[in-house]
Every structure is written in C-alpha cells, then in structure tokens.
Amino acid sequence: MAPYPEKVRDHFLNPRNAGELPRATVVGEAGSLASGDALRLQLEIVNDRIEDARFQSFGKPASVAAASALTEMLIGRQIDEASRITAPEIAATLDLPAQYMSAARSAMEALENAYARHRSLDTSSDDAQGERVICRCFDVSQGRIARAISDHALNSVAEVTAHTRAGGGCGSCHIDLENMLARARAERARAAEDQRVKQAREAARAQVASTSTGISDLQRAALIQEVLDREVRPGLAMDGGDMELVGVEGTLVKVKLNGHCVSCSSSTATMRFFVEDKLRELVDPAIEVQDVTDHGEVLHAPPMR
Fold first, then answer.
1. What is the residue-level pLDDT of the chain in tens, covering all 305 positions?
2. Would strands 241-249 and 252-259 be described as parallel, antiparallel, or unpaired?
3. How far, CA to CA in Å, does 129 sit from each of 111, 118, 133, 147?
4. Are 107 and 39 in contact (CB under 8 A)?
5. Distance, CA of 85 to chain centre
C-alpha cells in the first residue's frame, strides 16, 4: 500500500467538522459497520444553501480524511451545485492515490444519499430493491460496482477494489468482477466503433457537401466505392455474398452481385432498401442503383446466418 499523502494525514489527525450537528436538516449515509467503513454526513440546509456540515466516520484514515475534506467543500454552497461533486474531485483535494479511491467514493455516496433525502427522491438502496450483492465481504452490490466501472472506465479487479472495496476480502467474487469488466470493455468497444462509424459518415457527408454540383463521374465513383466498401460489402459478406461497382453515369450507379447474392430472392429488396438508401444518405440523394447481375432463372431464399 502507498503511504498516505500529507493532506490525508492532516485531515485524519485534525479532522474538520467532525461530530454531531444538532441543527441538521438532512442526514446522508454510506457504507456499514459490518463492512468496517461507515459514514454519516449531516447537513444544515437553509433556503437550499448548506449553512453547516458535520460528519461521523468509522473507517480507515482515508475515509475520515475524505469526509473531512468533503464538509469543507460543501459549506456555503447551494445544495444542487454541491450534489454534483464527484469522487475524483474529493480525491484531488487530498492527493489521494488510486488504491484509496473507495474512500472518496463513499463520501460521494453519503452526499448523494443526503441530496436524495433533501429532495424527497427515492432513497432505497440497490440491495434493498433485491439487487444482487457481488462482494459479500464488504456488502457491495452489482449496481454500485457497475456504476464505478462505467464512471471511471475501470479495467481490472484491483481498480474495482480501489474504488468500491469489492474483491478486497476472500476473493470469491473475482470471477463475477472479471465478467462485469469484460462486458464493460465490450460495451466501450461497441461505443467507440459506433462513434468511429458516425464520424466516418459525417466526414463523407461533409466531403459531398463541399463538392460542386459539377463533380465528375470519376470522383463520384470514388466516393461510391468508398461507401460500398465501408458500409455495404461487409454486411453482404456475412451471407456469403459480395458486390462490385460496374460503372457510374451521373446519378445512375450500376452494380453487380456475386456469391450467394446472385441467386438470392431478396436481392431486389437489398438493392432498393439497403444499397440505394445508403448511397443516397452518404453520397447523393438523387442516386439510383441499377442491378446488372445475370441472376439466371432460379432464385432461392437467402442462406441462414
């Protein structure tokens, strides 16, 4: 474990605003005595302004320091503004190392709980609603872990433990944590790919928009080939088919199907509702696609994927 930074030592040895707050109008809680880390945050709110803040903490030095620092950040702020304080912001005020991030997150959760109670929002916990507890050593729910993974782009069990304490006990939940991390990585990869495709489409539209109406067939053909390669052919390949660009005459695009697409009964629909629409979207809304494939006499249903 890394040594505690000087700011953490200072807040632990000389905690600010510790103890009871008799005038408290709302109380937020996080953690539990059973998990060895419990926090009680008390706020005096007048006309939506936090006039005073106190805390009571049962936990490690980092937890006491995070709660102490949070109260200093809260006093004098409007409650709606204060509710947007994040765990990384709390950690930054203390120069808190990553392995102690769970302390900052616990302080943030106590603030969230207090805000929800002040605004009369639903304050029932994820576990109270029957959500699965992943780490039984520290009573950490699946929802809390998922939020930490999403909010901080966590990639390892060690990072999850640092942010939530989950996995820091017997280790029996490590398989569940690895599965959650794998799903999160896959979701991030899909989101990144969706963003890449979106940017590519916007770039294609911008390229077409910047081109004069007198674009040559050769230039138009290059744009069309790019769209076919990126947006159309990969989908056809999944069914064992392919498409080649035969020629471009103004807004008339001639294409030829290959592979399974040649005898597929849905080839006409593919041309009209997939290929033509895609080219109209990304190249020119006036484009018409002409199929010059020799389909023969027999058409059959598309193959099963």
1. 567 899 999 999 999 999 999 999 999 998 776 666 789 999 999 999 999 999 998 888 999 999 999 999 999 999 999 988 888 899 999 998 888 888 888 898 899 889 989 988 654 444 444 568 888 877 788 888 888 898 888 899 988 888 887 888 888 899 999 999 999 998 988 888 888 877 876 776 666 656 545 567 777 888 888 888 888 888 888 878 888 898 888 888 888 888 877 777 677 777 777 888 888 888 888 888 888 887 665 444 444 44
2. antiparallel
3. 20, 21, 11, 16
4. yes
5. 19
Instruction: Report all structural domains of the chain as residue ranges with CATH numbers, in order of start.
Output: 1-121 (3.90.1010.10), 124-210 (1.10.10.1100), 217-291 (3.30.300.130)
Q: Bridge partners of 205?
A: none
Strands (E), 137-201: 140-141
Number of neighbouring beta carbons within 10 Å of residue 35: 18
Question: Could you tell me how many helices (H) and strands (E) the chain has, helices first?
Answer: 12, 8
Distance from C-alpha of 168 to C-alpha of 288, rounded to nearest angstrom: 62
**Residue 202 CB neighbour total at 10 angstroms:** 11
State how far the Cα of 54 lies from the Cα of 68, in Å rounded to an integer: 8
- Any idea which residue has 């040594």 for tokens? 3
As a whole number of angstroms, the distance between CA 130 and CA 98 comes to: 30
Nearest by Cα to 236 from 202, 190, 209, 269: 269
Per-residue HEC secondary structure of 97-110 comes to: CHHHHHHHHHHHHH
C-alpha pair distances (Å), 159 with each of 92, 150, 165: 17, 12, 9
